[in-house]
């Protein structure tokens, strides 16, 4: 039986302990560790798996645990199953693993040696018999330097590993893993920078190299409009500051991409329209200030559907952006350039704006996570506007956690956006506190039948969505079919959308406030440089006199209020945590064709309710889409239910893992 005892000769220093704590290589539910508290076998295995996953390794679990005493309610079952699949652990002759037994120092050496794939070496300790089955692995771990004996002659056989020791060993294993930029998360990158694997400046250069290789060469995604000319210098400043301070947030030194309708003081803000080429505002948008305050580095700005007015991401300034999963298709829109940048690993995360679908459509089309928050959670001040009623801003990221981190940074009260006053007191200090791998357990979700297509063109999306529903049920959620009378997305767009009534007013106000070279919508149309895809929309808007006084406009606002009440009643009467539907009923359209049809995002935009879109799966592969085209699932909830939506999406993500990188933008050699 292993015993807990003080280590006679510590083979680590305080800085290692502090670093392990900073990068969260800790036992579950503990903020710090004790030297004399033994670590159980399951806890140690979980730490090893955490170290490898923090380094970006994908660990798949075995489908059926070989151990008789590792049941579904075992706290660390997932880690144990992953360790079994990787060959790191084995059980006892009776078929048990004994997860609650303290792990001995020699058992630790066995696991460490297997994790690092060390070659057996003779163990030169008096308490380790040369004939013992673990002698070679103990010798290998000691020779590698990751573990030491209690003294020159005594290894410490039978001594239980303590909490501090386990965290230090996990840190050392982590540090031996190479840094991999591909799909690296915010926390993975922070850990790499904390441990000196990489600097912010090196990271930025890696992303610049990928942009150089894939945006205007290779697949020519055409996602980026502008690179921050000072980005390498800014990253270097963050690196210098990192050496001086230990208190930092998760976005510190993290490169992100902005949609090019967010005002930036050092780069042009164009909305993708050629008439605004070169226009640089005097100050940042409020959300950009918040991101900078959180430590984010603005790497550059992305193409969008011109003035954020449609869903295929084409502009007079930037041209057509391509979908990296199928270069014959669009990336959705209007925030398609941001989505491409994130999915192709040109940056860690990015921002979008959403008047109808524009954060979530490209998230769906590019196998990402996009959040349209409750109206007023994020300020839209300093973002080229379309509609003060429907506009909202939100994050686009590769994981739910990264999206939550971004949204945490972006949100907040802004006196220049009165809607943000509505959010005060509604959201917890950190949305990331909602992350729970069991986030779907006990949840009741309504399947919004109205938002599914019933034609052959809808079959691929329906297949993926229905499979996702089954997966959610397997993860503990109850899903019930819901039909809302007279609710049809096309009809909502036709009868509720107010863009054509508000865009002239808000654009003219923006042009006046920020001193753009174009002074009015009328002048913009007269210049004649806009993309044809938005010409009719703008001409219609310009033709309406006193648009905010039009009876139809006021009637639409009244309909919105009634729809809000109706949807709240649906959620309440059916005791639902959220409504589920595919973000769009059909796959994204080909480039050069019609605008995207059958999108469902209008419900969130006209009610102001929050919605999160996340990876649901892929369509059937084709010659142009070798792994298929992504399909996004959307959850919509009550106002300020972002914590619950994030929790459910995170639970689905952790239980399924439908994220896949596009084959058109592989790792650089």
From TrEMBL:
InterPro entries: Amidase_dom (IPR023631), AS_sf (IPR036928), SLH_dom (IPR001119). PANTHER family: AMIDASE, GLUTAMYL-TRNA(GLN) AMIDOTRANSFERASE SUBUNIT A. Residues 63-126 form the SLH domain. This is Amidase family protein. PROSITE patterns: SLH. It comes from the Bacteria. It comes from Paenibacillus solisilvae. It holds the Pfam family SLH.
């Amino acid at each position: 039986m292993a015993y807990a005892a003080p280590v006679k000769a510590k083979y680590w220093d305080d800085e290692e302990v502090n670093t392990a704590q900073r990068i969260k290589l800790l036992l579950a539910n503990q903020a710090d560790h004790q030297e004399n508290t033994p670590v159980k076998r399951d806890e140690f295995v979980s730490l090893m798996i955490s170290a490898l996953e923090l380094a970006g390794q994908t660990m798949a679990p075995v489908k059926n645990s070989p151990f008789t005493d590792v049941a579904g309610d075992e706290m660390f079952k997932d880690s144990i199953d992953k360790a079994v699949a990787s060959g790191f652990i084995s059980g006892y002759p009776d078929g048990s693993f004994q997860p609650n037994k303290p792990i001995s120092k020699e058992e630790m050496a066995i696991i460490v040696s297997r994790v690092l794939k060390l070659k057996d070496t003779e163990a030169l300790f008096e308490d380790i018999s040369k004939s013992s089955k673990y002698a070679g692995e103990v010798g290998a771990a000691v020779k590698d330097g990751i573990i030491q004996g209690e003294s020159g002659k005594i290894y410490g056989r039978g001594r239980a590993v303590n909490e501090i020791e386990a965290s230090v060993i996990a840190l050392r294993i982590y540090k031996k893993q190479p840094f991999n930029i591909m799909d690296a998360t915010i926390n993975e990158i922070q850990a790499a920078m904390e441990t000196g694997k990489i600097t912010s400046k090196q990271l930025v250069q890696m992303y610049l190299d990928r942009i150089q290789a894939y945006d205007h060469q290779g697949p020519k995604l055409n996602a980026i409009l502008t690179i921050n000319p000072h980005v390498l210098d800014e990253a270097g400043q963050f690196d210098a500051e990192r050496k001086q301070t230990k208190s930092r947030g998760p976005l510190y030194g993290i490169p992100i991409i902005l949609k090019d309708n967010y005002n930036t003081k050092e780069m042009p803000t164009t909305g993708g329209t050629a008439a605004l080429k070169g226009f640089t505002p005097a100050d940042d948008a409020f959300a950009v200030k918040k991101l900078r305050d959180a430590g984010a580095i603005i790497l550059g700005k992305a193409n969008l559907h011109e003035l954020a007015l449609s869903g295929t991401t084409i502009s007079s300034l930037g041209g057509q952006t391509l979908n990296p999963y199928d270069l014959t298709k669009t990336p959705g829109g209007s925030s398609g350039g941001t989505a491409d940048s994130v999915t192709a690993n040109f940056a860690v995360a990015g921002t979008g704006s959403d008047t109808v679908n524009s954060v979530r459509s490209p998230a769906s089309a590019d196998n990402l996570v996009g959040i349209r928050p409750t109206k007023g959670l994020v300020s839209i001040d300093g973002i080229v506007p379309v509609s003060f009623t429907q506009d909202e801003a939100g994050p686009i990221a590769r994981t739910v956690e990264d999206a939550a981190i971004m949204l945490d940074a972006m949100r907040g009260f802004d006196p220049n956006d009165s809607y943000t006053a509505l959010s005060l007191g509604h959201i917890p200090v950190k949305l990331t506190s909602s992350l729970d791998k069991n986030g779907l357990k006990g949840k009741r979700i309504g399947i919004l039948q109205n938002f599914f297509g019933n034609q052959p063109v809808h079959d691929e999306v329906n297949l993926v969505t229905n499979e996702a529903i089954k997966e959610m049920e397997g993860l503990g959620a109850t899903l019930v079919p819901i039909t809302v009378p007279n609710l049809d997305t096309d009809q909502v767009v036709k009868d509720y959308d107010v863009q054509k009534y508000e865009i002239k007013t808000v654009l003219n106000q923006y042009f006046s406030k920020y001193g753009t070279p174009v002074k009015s919508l009328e002048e913009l149309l007269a210049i004649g440089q806009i993309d044809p895809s938005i010409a009719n929309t703008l001409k219609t808007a310009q033709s309406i006199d006193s648009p905010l006084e039009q009876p139809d406009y006021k009637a639409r606002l009244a309909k919105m209020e009634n729809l809000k009440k109706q949807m709240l009643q649906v959620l309440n009467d059916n005791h639902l945590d959220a409504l589920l539907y595919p973000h769009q009923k059909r796959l994204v359209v080909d480039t050069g064709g019609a605008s995207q049809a059958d999108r469902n995002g209008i419900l969130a935009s006209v009610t102001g309710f929050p919605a999160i879109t996340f990876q649901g799966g892929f369509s059937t592969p084709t010659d142009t889409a070798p792994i298929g085209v992504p399909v996004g699932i959307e959850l919509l909830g009550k106002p300020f239910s972002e914590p619950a939506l994030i929790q459910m999406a995170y639970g689905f993500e952790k239980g399924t893992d439908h994220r896949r990188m596009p084959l058109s933008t592989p790792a650089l050699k």
